[in-house]
Specification:
Leucine-rich Repeat Variant, 69% helix, 36 helices
Amino acid sequence: MSRLLGTLAIAALLLVCIAAILWVTSPSNPPTGRTTPETPKTAVAPTPASVASTREPDAGAKLGPEPLPATDRPTTAPVATGVPSVPKPGPVAKPPFAGPKETKTALDALKEAMASGNTKLVEQLLKQLVKDTAAAPHLLELLAEKTYSPDARTRLLRAIVKAAPPGAFDEIVRLLQVEDQVAFQQQLIQAAVTLGGDRAVLPLLELVKRSASEEVRKAAAQALARAGDPRAIESLVELAKSETDAATRKLILAALGTAKSTKAVSILTDLLKRAAPEDDDTRIGAAEALADMGTPEALDALLSVIRDAPNSKEAESAIDALSSIADVNQAAVYELGTKLMESPSDELKEKAAEILGYSGDKRALKPLLEMLKTNPNPDLRSAAAEALGNFESPDLTGSLVEILATEQDPAVRGYIAESIGYIGDEAAVSHLIKALQSEPNLDTKTLMVQALGDIGSAAAIPALVELFKSDQPKEIKLAAIDSLGYIGEAAATPAIIDGIRKSDDPEITTNLIQALGQIKDPSALPVLEGILSNPTESADLKRAAAFSIAQISEEDALPILNKAFQSAQDDVTKLAVVDGLTMIAETPAVKEFARTELSSTLTQLALESKDRNVRLRSVQALATFVGKDAIATIQQVAEKDPDASVRSKAYQLYVKLKAGK
């Protein structure tokens, strides 16, 4: 027994020794004082994910590129250029500093200078650091820091663009996608073009298509056009064709106008000629782009469009575009008109007169006056008379009144009278009065009366008063009353008040009331107050009176309108007062009055009136005067009003108020 126990003890001791030896010789547990040679590791390039994980994020900042801002614009189709969409670059890692100590010291000083706004020191340090290759990645990192002022970031960006360190273009492309400061994003766009050349095409196209900011889309489109890269021009054109948002399509076409290249001229001309009849945006945008381009080639392209089809929509767009650049390119517009005037076609001569009138170049006066005096075609004489009015030169008055006295065609006389009115020379008043007294044509006589109002001279008041008081056609009376309002002299007030009292024509009475508002003579307020308070007057007359009261005097209007509102026994008067108050809705006294006095009445009218027009105008007034405090009432009208048009209007107002508009 004892021999057996001895044997077992020896065996156990052997097992313990073997286990100890195995543990000591294990590679994961080297014995003290013994070194284990390390297996050399193969260097592996860090993955984007592993690089990003080493970056120390700023407080509150998101890692990785943020998505482009959301936009309400429809997503456009991919540009059909055969070029894949630009890949969105990942975040730039923040590398550990591994350069000389003096570089780190300068970088730290730069950060402090940018934070404190020390622009002089920022400029000095940047001059030093942009030459230091060890500082380059850290400068690019600073560019993304939105905590610095726009001025500091701009100075840094300029320095980086000038030095063009490795990786600068890629970092700027990344920032383009995440930057939310519009002004700085516009500078990044130009930097991308400067550093990347044709590599910037795809990133900038993405901005044109996706950015929520119209300013950014415009800047990107213009940068692409100015770069002059054929691929960029073609891509912009394809984007303009496929873009469903009218505003974006217009800015793309406008950007093409800055390209000043033969390719752009050809493309824009083709777009102008081939635009669908209903596609006004493309047609007008292409014409304006060519005009803005302003090169002889572009202007000749517009001229060719007019020559090919003078009465087409394309020609109309071309002429309108030329008129829009006359202020900055007067001589060029004049030359185009002169070229067109040499055409044997009367249609083209008519367009030439129109262009010469838009040019504003006084060299055009002689051929236009010659056409007005001698051309046998009344259409051309009319075109010349209309064009002369654009010059608004008193020097023309003598010639025009002389021609007016002898012109045989009533339409031409009408155009001459209009141009005399536009010129506005008081010396023409007596000639117009004499001419209208013998004018047999109603339309031409109406234009002569309106011209007296356009001139605006008090010398015309007696003749105009006589016209609306005498036995004249209604059109002449209305034109005379309107002209008295345009002249705006208190000398006409007594005659107008007398006319209101004697008139039995609602339209003429309404116009007379409106004229008092234009004249702004306080002596008319009692008469207008009487109309507003008279329970037998019509809604139209009450409304016109309330408007005129508000026009004459903001200070006096509120007491008068308040009194009428408080004493009114009918909804018509109350709503007329509300309509008048809309003229002075922004004044503090009116806002307070609306809050305390109008709100409950308008709510009741909007919900309970049996008159559809009363409910409609009440809900509109609630939105104007009460605003968000009326949302619940407006929502109720939108849901329950028996009239679909009232519900629709209430819903529109509800949406605007909820959106804070």
